[in-house]
Amino acid sequence: MALKVQGQVAMITGASSGIGRASALQLAEAGFQVALGARSVDKLEAIAAEIKEATGQEAFVMRLDVRHAEEVKAFVAAVKEHFGRIDLLLNNAGLAKGVLPVVEENDTENWDAMLDTNVRGLLLMTREAVPHMIEGGNGHVINLGSIAGREAYAGGAVYCASKFAVRAITDALRQELLGKPVRVTTVDPGMVETEFSVTRYHGDQEKANAVYAGMTPLTAEDIADCVTWAATRPKHVNIDAIIVKPLDQAGAGKVARR
Questions:
Q1: Which one of 1, 25, 112, 200 has the minimum C-beta count within 10 Å?
Q2: pLDDT digit string (tens) for 78-129?
Q3: How confident is the model at residue 148 (pLDDT cuts 50, 70, 90)?
Q4: Whole domain around residue 115: which residue ranges?
Q5: 33-38 vs 9-13, strand pairing mode
Q6: CATH number for the domain that contains residue 28
Q7: Where are the transmembrane segments (predicted)?
């Protein structure tokens, strides 16, 4: 049995592309009112137009860089003022930068970008959003993790560390909110073909394509299905974690290619 979510508000970070975009569309189709945050307002407005056409609802759109506390505060406050409530936070904003071993990485800006976005940004969003959920008597935090938060691999030390941190934060938060009306979930995908690898390889499309060569990766819509399913379970049901990989993948670096 699914939860009736009509009128509930879902707030999505990194909503301008990939898993964030797909989740925004599917959550809206499931009945959520959606608030979309990302650095590219033009892309958000295009997604809002799709949501309007598909569901008839007006999505809330606002620039958001989760690395900056003042933007996070302004975004959450604006969503609460606009809708009067916040029921779901999808902490989707995240990225990987580079594949160099730790001792060969000279550009620590890559490390800063991953840690500030994947960890600090998630913490800032959670800190601002959850009190509104508790006040409203209903809430759900869904964190977009990764199998990289369960299995480290060479060339991904800092990215893996950031996703291990997401899993630790998720588990601790669930304990901290015990007895409160807020559910906490992590969705941990394996290989998903989005802009992720393009960003990791600094825009090199050929290298990004090679990551998925000879195998069938997951899609953003596959992960959005998991997010929406977890979000629409009855209120007394908490899905702690969803680990999802393509059939062609058994773990980090363990991929069947044809």
A1: 1
A2: 999 999 999 999 999 999 999 889 999 888 999 999 999 999 999 999 999 9
A3: very high
A4: 9-191+220-243
A5: parallel
A6: 3.40.50.720
A7: none
